[in-house]
Amino acid sequence: MEDPADTRPILIIPYMWIGDFVRGHTVVRVLNERWPNRPVDLLTTPLCAPLVDYMPGVRQGITWDLPRSRLAVNRQFGLAKLLRERNYGTALVLPRTWKAAIAPALAGIPERVGFVGEARFGLINRWRWGEKRLPRFIDKNASLAQPDGAPLPPEWPVPQLRVPPGEVARWRQANGLTGVTAVALGPGSVGASKRWTYYPEAARQFVEKGLEVWVVGGPGEKAMAQEIVAAGGPRVRDLTGNDLRNGVLAMAAAGVAISNDSGLMHIAAALGTPTMGIFGPTSPYLWAPLNGLAATVVQDKSILSCQPCQSTICRMNDHRCMRDIAASDVVAIAQRVLSESGARATT
Fold it and tell me: Is the pTM of this model over 0.85?
């Protein structure tokens, strides 16, 4: 039994990729259930910071930008000073890297929980073992929020993102978007092998069926968005940009979201928007959202024995796992999803 009088705040050091950051909300929910009187904070990068505003059960985000490619000692000391001022009792260090554990140790957080990895002796003082025996990424992360040695539950709490309806309405108005049902497309991903290439043709078909199309993503997807707009015409909107909040609101307002295996897929699913995930080289079992998808679009594995390969470059079948998924099939599935969900037009 946990001490109900314990009110010391808890800090989570999550993975900072967008999809993994969204998955981290499961860890928040496990901690909320285990210690209902202990506030939970999340360390975040400026990129992921808008997500914290929509995560129930999180007291606040600690925004700090640590470079991925170097140690940045001065930045680590600055973060440690900030953490020390907040008097955390526990830090959960989800990444198994040495660098992720430095600031919590320098801050003197009494309990620092994490898996054995990268010789973090002295940085982590509540070791966990058996990471490689855990089947999924979410199992590895959420088990750190449980008592040491506790069995995995049959199901984890699913990530949640909650956007106030008024905020969605204001976003629509600011962007001049009508109440017509919209299909949100997420054509980007980390790794080109996970990108389905027929979004322009799908956009054209959606427009022909009277739907609006929104292309959502970061600045790296701008060129893809322009190609999709050119194929679909004026009813296709390029909503890519630097602010992740814009992507969250677009996914919240859409009638259906269609995405590669990417952070936007996890955002849409956590919002409760009917979400279609297109999978090629990656496994839906390992990487699909816990929330469940309205449809998982994947090539027949009996045709491609190499799938899923988890590789960033196709070396066997000329990327057939993605190329053989036809735009007409995706459009037909999306229409069925819209029909079953009641074709949400406005929120």
Answer: yes
